[in-house]
Design brief:
By secondary structure, this protein is α+β, with helices and mostly antiparallel strands. It has 6 helices and 10 strands. The chain has helices at about 10-25, 25-30, 35-45, 65-70, 115-125, 130-140; strands at about 55-60, 85, 100, 125-130, 150-160, 165-175, 180-185, 195, 195-200, 200.
């Protein structure tokens, strides 16, 4: 696995991500109380607070619409979340901001189709990102999109259309613009794309 480098302790990483959301205007909409509630729960769940692996604070679309998140992240993309299907079933779906922990940047899956990578990720006991989670990664780990990298697959979210193969959603950057989204059949293999994963979610019950 190839973990995301960050060089911060857990609390500093958490605070930095909340500050990033504040700078982009997210907290002006949803406030900071939800993060204050999550913080002690997350820190308690992390084994080594001095050198934690990277985590990303995600916002579910039922708490803040996906298009609003994309807009604040600098994207002009418009997506109907109602037209998307998350393919992994969880016992508890988060209803407010949560964390995905032990994030892997997906380099082991570079050039592999999202469909094949997702199967390997699931077999290893880990989880692919859905589109909400991948937007959070675009906000908190923009270095994953810098050259020679190109884009990442949200392999846990499909965008089916009648009479067509369900498409995997891909998040990428073009030039110095904001996050962009496109759809590709999950069988596409592209050396410029990877499929990131994470170990678990930490949610507020």
């Amino acid at each position: 696995m190839s973990h995301v480098e960050h060089g911060l302790d857990a609390e500093a990483l958490f605070d930095k991500q909340v500050e990033t959301y504040a700078q982009l205007g997210f907290t002006a909409v949803i406030g900071t109380e939800v993060f204050e509630t999550l913080k002690p729960i997350l820190l308690e769940n992390l084994n080594d607070l001095s050198k934690p692996s990277f985590f990303s604070l995600a916002i579910p679309h039922i708490f803040m619409p996906l298009n609003q998140q994309l807009e604040l992240a600098g994207s002009r993309a418009f997506l109907k979340r109602d037209n998307m299907v998350d393919i992994e079933d969880w016992d508890h779906e988060p209803t407010q901001p949560y964390a995905v922990i032990d994030v892997d940047d997906g380099e082991d899956y570079r050039g592999m189709s999202a469909e094949v990578a997702d199967a390997k990720i699931m077999a290893s006991g880990r989880h692919s990102f859905n589109i909400d989670e991948l937007v959070s990664l675009g906000v908190h780990a923009p270095q994953l999109w810098t050259p020679p990298r190109r884009g990442l697959y949200a392999a846990a979210t499909l965008h089916p259309e009648e009479g067509q193969m369900a498409s995997t959603l891909d998040l990428y950057r073009f030039g110095d613009g904001g996050l962009k989204v496109k759809r590709d059949p999950g069988i596409i293999r592209d050396s410029d794309w990877t499929t990131p994963s994470y170990q678990a979610r930490v949610i507020v019950a």
